[in-house]
């Protein structure tokens, strides 16, 4: 499935996820946070291999797991399951905007940006993986970033990659 199709599929599921998250959390603000974190995790996972067979089921399972973790007292969490950093609400809220903006990019640009920004894959490695000249990879990423900045009304110095990282 193309990246743009996957992004659109995630966005179509958002209202149902929000209703379910509301049942888990008890309030709209917490539900919105749960959905944003769910979308971010699943979207990041979709960029990697192996592919997810049933995206809808995976979304709702991720939502349930996040809600369960959020409802447990901190002393119950062991070091392995404890969050490494506190959630950044601004980043999570921006995730929907980033997903929407990425869905408007050509698939070739979106894919390269995702692998470079999220996975930290170098331009040279992207060129090798996609069998493209290095200049083509760099050009596509630069054009995609420029369009994201315009679409999201970001300052030229603001990094789109920071908004995509876990």
Number of helices, counting only DSSP H or I runs of 4 residues or more: 8
Bulk shape:
elongated
Q: Please state the structural category.
A: mainly alpha
Mean pLDDT: 75
Largest sheet: none
Series of secondary-structure elements, N-terminal to C-terminal? HHHHHHHH
Strand fraction: under 5%
Helix amount: 55-70%
Task: Give the termini separation.
Answer: 23 Å
Give the quaternary arrangement of the chains: single chain
Low-confidence sequence ranges: none
Radius of gyration using CA atoms only: 17 Å
Q: Count every beta strand, where a strand is a DSSP E run of 2 or more residues.
A: 0
How would you sum up this structure, described in words?
The chain is an all-alpha fold. 70% of the residues lie in helices and 0% in strands. The chain contains 8 helices and no strands. It has helices at residues 3-25, 28-46, 55-71, 89-103, 107-117, 123-130, 134-151, 160-164. Helix 1 runs antiparallel to helix 2 (28-46), helix 2 packs across helix 3 (55-71) and helix 6 packs across helix 7 (134-151).
């Amino acid at each position: 499935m193309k990246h743009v199709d996957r992004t659109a599929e995630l966005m179509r599921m958002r209202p149902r996820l929000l209703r379910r998250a509301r049942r888990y959390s008890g309030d709209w603000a917490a539900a919105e946070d749960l959905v944003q974190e769910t979308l971010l995790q699943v979207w990041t996972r979709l960029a990697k291999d192996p592919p997810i067979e049933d995206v809808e089921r995976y979304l709702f399972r991720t939502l349930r797991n996040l809600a369960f973790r959020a409802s447990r007292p901190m002393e119950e969490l062991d070091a392995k399951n404890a969050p490494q950093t506190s959630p950044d609400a601004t980043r999570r809220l921006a995730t929907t905007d980033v997903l929407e903006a990425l869905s408007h990019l050509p698939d070739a640009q979106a894919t390269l940006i995702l692998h470079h920004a999220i996975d930290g894959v170098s331009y040279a490695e992207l060129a090798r993986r996609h069998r493209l000249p290095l200049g083509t990879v760099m050009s596509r990423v630069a054009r995609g970033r420029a369009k994201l900045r315009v679409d999201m009304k970001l300052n030229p110095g603001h990094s789109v990659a920071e908004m995509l990282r876990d």
